Amino acid sequence: MKWIASAAFGMEGMTGRDLKRLGAENVNVLSIGGAEFEGGFDIGMKANLWLRTADHVHLVLAEKKVLRFDDLFEFIKTIPWADYIARDNAFPVRAHCVKSQLMSESDCQKICKKAIADVLESRYHISRLPETGASVQIDVDIRDNLARVSLDASGEPLSKRGYRTWNGEAPLRETLAAALVLTSDWHPWQPLYDPCCGTGTLLIEAAFIALNRAPGLRRAFAMEDWGFVNKDELEAVRRQAQSRYDECYLRKIDIAGSDIDPEAIELAKRHVKQAGLSDRIQLNVADLRDVALTGEPGMLIANPPYGERLGDVRAAHAVARQLGALYKRCRGWGMSVFSADMGFEREFGYYASRRRRFYNGKIECEYHMFAPDSKPVINKYKRGGGK
Which domain covers residue 264, as residue numbers? Predict the structure, then answer.
């Protein structure tokens, strides 16, 4: 069977690598949108459980070029819908159109819904489908005139891990937090510290990686309600993921963070508890300027305020300078900082050894990664404009 794991810009490659590690076949990383792969229902379940940077997993039913609404209607009717949808299943349809002859999403949705209903009513010999049972979400994506019909195997987005029920100001999406941790040069046996930890998402995602915990272990997925899959097979995949976490839970880790806002730390403690990590992550209230780290060097990772979020670019620049001072006094530590401020390195005071571009929602951001020996920025002009 063919599947697609959708992912945000910049995360497609990570999603593809994870799929290969899970044993998926014929993995094809898409230039935009995620990665295609093949496998049975067990692989689809593994993808839902283990993909740290993907948004959704879909089971692809059929694909075909369509140029007219009649083409779309007839194409949808060729799919054996009774194989996937029971007599009483609800079957909502979502349509998405990009660069195609058919660009009315509402019209495409109605046409597809009508075609599916015609097939099912004929198959079940009824004039009206009740749609009172479990829901099977159908997606019709038309891009460059190629219509792809799929079933949403995830349900809620995969970023919904189940541990974050309270949000502070401008929360970092879980999938993006995992991508930042994975992209940094941090290794799970090293210390990790977040000096602007907010509500704790970066720290929790890092602990999941270090302890070999499937990010979806504590949530349900839409495919578990599908009537045409073997529930025992899916449950076996879930038990295997739980076993891997149990084996690694007592592994030694050194993950901690702080924030100047006591309310943010209180929320972070709640999230850490919800994630089942209360005794594995250390949190405290601290001003960034007062953070002092001793012991074995590791990695500092931060998602500080960067102007768009605060509405105050000068305050964001002050935080960048404070982070630069922290980096300077933590000899031997690397630091990775996520920011939308394109002048971040100037304020930070050092040149990044690597950079990656991601989007935080609609905000384009740069991920600056500083090795322990990154070179200082040489300012040609003094502050205030004088030479």
Answer: 174-213+226-370
Does residue 138 share a domain with residue 86?
Answer: yes
What is the number of other CB atoms lying within 10 angstroms of the CB of residue 374?
A: 20
Count of other CB atoms within 10 angstroms of residue 273: 13
- What's the structural domain count of the chain? 2
What pLDDT is recorded for position 183?
97
Q: For residue 168, what pLDDT is reported?
A: 59
Within-domain flag for 162? no
Q: 296-340, pLDDT tens digit by residue? A: 999 999 999 765 544 577 888 899 999 999 999 999 999 999 998
Residue 68, φ and ψ in degrees, nearest 5: -130, 160
Measure the CA angle with vertex 216, ends 213 and 221; round to 5°. Answer: 155
Residues 86 and 120 in one domain: yes
- Ranges of the chain with pLDDT below 70: 166-170, 306-311, 379-387
Q: Is residue 288 part of a domain?
A: yes
Residue 306 lies in a domain: yes
For residue 182, the Cα-to-chain-centroid distance in whole angstroms is: 12
pLDDT tens for 39-83 read 999 999 999 999 999 999 999 999 999 999 999 999 999 999 999
Domain with residue 242: its CATH number is 3.40.50.150
In a domain, 157, yes or no: no
List, as own/partner pairs, every contact residues 18-24 make where C-beta atoms lie below 8 angstroms and the sequence separation is at least 24, other chains included: 18/50, 18/51, 18/52, 18/53, 18/54, 19/47, 19/51, 22/46, 22/47, 22/50
